[in-house]
Amino acid sequence: MKILVVCGAGASSAFVAHRLRVTGKQRGLTLTVVAGSESDLPGSLDTVDVLLVGPHLAPRFDRLSTQAKKLGVGVALLPKAVFAARDGDLALDLAVDAEHERSWV
Q1: Which keywords accompany this UniProt record (predicted)?
Q2: How many angstroms separate the Cα of 21 from the Cα of each of 16, 29, 43, 78, 94?
Q3: Which CATH number fits domain 2-103: 3.40.50.150, 3.30.530.20, 3.40.250.10, 3.40.50.2300?
C-alpha cells in the first residue's frame, strides 16, 4: 500500500510518515509512505492508494476527499492526536480502513 500524508507545509506529515513506516514494518506490512504538502495535490494522487489529511486541513477535507475518491484513492482525516502519538498505530489503522473502503468503490 502506498500512503501519502499531507499537511499544510509538509513538516508535520514527515513525522507521521516516519511513524507509519516503523509501525507498518512491525506489523509485517509492505508500505510506501511519503509526506507532502497540500500544494502537492492533486498531482500526487494518481500514484497512491491512500491519502491521509492533517487535521488543520479539515476545512478543506471535503474538497480533498472528492479529488482523491475520483481517482480511486482511499482517504481519511487524521485526528490531532496522531501528531502527538509516539507510534503510528492510529494513523496506520486509519490508512488500512481507508484502503479497505477504497476497494469497495
Answers
A1: Kinase, Phosphoprotein, Phosphotransferase system, Sugar transport, Transferase, Transport
A2: 9, 9, 23, 16, 14
A3: 3.40.50.2300
For 37-75, b/e burial (b = at least 16 CB within 10 A) is: bbeebeebbeebbbbbbbeebeeeeeebbeebbeeebbb
Q: Is the model's pLDDT at 95 over the cut of 60?
A: yes
Residues 6+ apart with CB under 8 A from 95: 1, 3, 20, 50, 52, 74, 76
Instruction: Identify the DSSP state of 78.
Output: P
Read off the pLDDT of residues 18-30 as tens digits, 9 standing for 90 and up: 999 999 999 999 9
What's this model's pTM, rounded to 2 decimal places? 0.93
